[in-house]
Amino acid sequence: MVLEKINRPNDIKKVAAEELSILADEIREFLIRTISTSGGHLASNLGVVELTMAMHLVFEMPKDKIIWDVGHQAYTHKLLTGRRDGFDTLRKFGGMSGFPKRCESECDCFDTGHSSTSISAGLGYVKARDLKGEDYSVISVIGDGSLTGGMAYEAMNNAGSMKTNFIIVLNDNNMSISENVGGMSEYLGSMRTNDAYMGLKQGVTDTLNRIPVYGEKMVRHIKKTKSGIKQLFIPGMWFEEMGLTYLGPVDGHNIDRLVHMFREAKKINGPVLLHVMTKKGKGYLPAERHPARFHGAEPFDIGTGLPLHRREKANYTDVFSTVMRKLGEQCPQLVAITAAMPDGTGLKRFKNVFPDRFFDVGIAEQHAVTFAAGMAAGGMIPVVAVYSSFLQRAFDQIVHDVCIQKLHVIFAIDRAGLVGSDGETHQGIFDLSYLSLIPNLCVMAPKNKWELSDMMKFAVDYEGPIALRYPRGEAYDGLSGFRAPIVCGQSEILYDEEKIALIAVGSMVKTAHEVRQRLKQKGFSCSLINARFVKPLDEELLLELAAEHSLIVTLEENVLAGGFGEHVTEFYVQAGSEVQVMNIALPDDYVEHGNVDILKKECGIDAETVEKKIIAAAIGL
After folding, report:
1. Is residue 280 annotated as a catalytic residue, yes or no?
2. What is the pLDDT of residues 566-575, one digit of tens each?
3. What is this structure's pTM?
4. Can you tell me the distance from the alpha carbon of 84 to that of 82, in angstroms, rounded to the nearest whole number?
């Protein structure tokens, strides 16, 4: 096998030219076989095999810096840098990450997980390189989807005035920016990077600029005229107007052509954008036909492409999807907004039934929130459905555009808490902290699938900004007999006893219920409270619990700092209560990738560990 020759960075340069296509096939076979077992991002990785190979043929690792936007398409990069054996542990606890990690390899020069960041990071590398007088290439790879994020344009605008080499690769797998016009585009791209042409252009510009008074005006006039002519022939002139030299489009699966274009791009004394056309899922028919399904794939049967483990129970996203459709029928003012995640957030059904009231704004969470604020101000009831980790990107908009004005925007926050295999950049473990500090914002979390439905109905009737967060995975259907009406700021008492009181938030109610059963078996009296609201706190109940219990235990799937537990503890301090409070929460740290049950155990929020902590504290009371 050719792939077996790749054991360390730059080994691909030793591969014979006639073997490169074989290597590409072997890489695809390896990725399909591996991801069918481990799960992971398949379609995006299959689409960039030749692109990645070409970069590794032209550039030197780790001297040169390749920065992957989002980073989920870096599997081939990992293979070509000698990490083939690590794929046995891909996305497993303690194993290889599914994203670039600086701590994993010196060939990973920048950690990524969220979109639209690579150009900014690359520009930073370029400036650092030039200031230190170093000599290496910087290549930022960004997808056409990530160009819907405004941060990418901020970076390109900043890069446009540079007079130093910086290569931006636009991986376009949906032809969403411009048509591939074939031979003419390739010819013009080659001509414009020709040494003689580039030298002549710069020489003429320098000469004219030296002419007193009229020189600069002549240059501006020539550029204006030239740009008008180029608009007729050259795709990508929009990038040229920003100050980037545009090359392409080029076939992203033609290694020879890609290698040639990268070598040409290295010659340009300024920022250059290479437009590469690729096919998502290339080489595996099920992924080509259904790229969205194979974006983040669970283990699957290679022959059919079907998941190996079919879900028998609905997950929280399914419940939200059903509720949104029903609420859409009842409330004509209800609208749904997503940032490029209609499937992932469960809004596809709403979209199909109410297409005029569904809005996908692309990977642009900041815009999504302010867009929702405008719709709320205009009399609609917008639901912004978003993953917890991605909502972080719109913190200022939540504060400035929604909450200051007390606008009725509903934040449906999916993937809250530990999400597992995607790791640090995707764990939704900060939302209770950053949301609960915002004035005017009501924050809720449901204990099970029925309460999610009830909370959504409550949120639609509520006046003002409101957020509800729910976890990834199978929707809990326990505690079905407890369904007290939801009243703003009021908790739900599930079991009322004495001595120990467990106050749990959202997903941790299930854990707290198990902890209570364990404690009861050991003879401890224990109350169980479903907090429901993180903000506002149920202060009246907290005072009652302090009077009747000697130990208050808060449980949340959120970091300790700024979370529910800290707010409860602070309340008791301010109230002058001497009741003992124990906070069960995630550590103030970033949680790596791995199975959620393993992560809970490692972080000390599983039932067994919590039980031991409570017993140790209770013995001393």
Report:
1. yes
2. 999 999 999 9
3. 0.88
4. 6
